[in-house]
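In this section we walk through a basic example: taking a raw amino acid sequence and producing a predicted 3D structure, encoded as discrete structure tokens. The instruction is simple. Fold the sequence below.
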Amino acid sequence: MKRRTFLQKSAFGSLLFATGQFPLHAMDKPEIAKITILHTNDVHSRIEPFPMDGGKYQGLGGAAKRAALVKKIRKEEKNVLLLDAGDVFQGTPYFNFFGGELEFKLMTEMGYDACTIGNHDFDAGIDGLHKQFTTHANFPLINCNYDFSDTIMNGKVLPHKIIEKAGVKIGISGVGVELDGLVPENLYKNTRYLDPIKNINTTAKFLKQDQKCDYVICLSHLGFKYDSDKVSDHHLAQQSEDIDLIIGGHTHTLLEKAETLKNKKGEPVTVNQVGWAGIALGRLDVFFEKNKKNKCITCNNQTVL
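The resulting token sequence is shown next.
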């Protein structure tokens, strides 16, 4: 495969609320490949929209609206990825009654390409996560800093995955937050937490340099940014070398537009997160130009409400 290099990226609609429309202008030149990346995080079992009770999020969220929006975008765009940054479980009675079954069934129906693991995804225990994932999910769980070798999830979680769209080779990996002190030990059992920055950098290097991926995505459940030195997406971006995009979760940060930070090489890393409960669907349109190495132009990010 001829190597594609990153030309430009823009978050047309970092936030997509139910009826969002995109002022997109198609790029028909044959040397340009466009990949549309859709993403969610911290959906927390919000199967139905928030009730119309005058609350801040009334009418927002809900699997049906998200599914309809994803379906609409897939009709408009040829090359779409749908990703999630963890905490699929916990937050409504649907989880209490069904233990995550409905969440994974709906994500499978929507055609998610990959998901990482959040701390609340252990809330039914690692045995519950295993049962629901192996029975109802038709997409991979991806994480490179949880060691499941001494648990029932051994061999069930991928450290990375490569997906090819329009001749563009996209590497995907994921990292999760420290579980000790956040999740009762009896729920995650012998899962071992490993240094997320060290492990994702090793994995990203493998994807970018060894596997010749054109674009590397990290699904992160570390949190966007903290006042302390706690590891976050900001730390990760600035200490990385081979990651192009960080799709974040955990802190429920609702960004008006994706942020661009510089990595250790001084190259841009895009970081995005879209709140919680499915109130928004993240979207980034990334353009790749064939046979022109290191040509990179970053376009303006936009937010469509």
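Looking at the output, two observations stand out. Residues 49 and 55 are 12 Å apart (CA to CA). The longest strand covers residues 32-40. In the next section we compare this with other chains.
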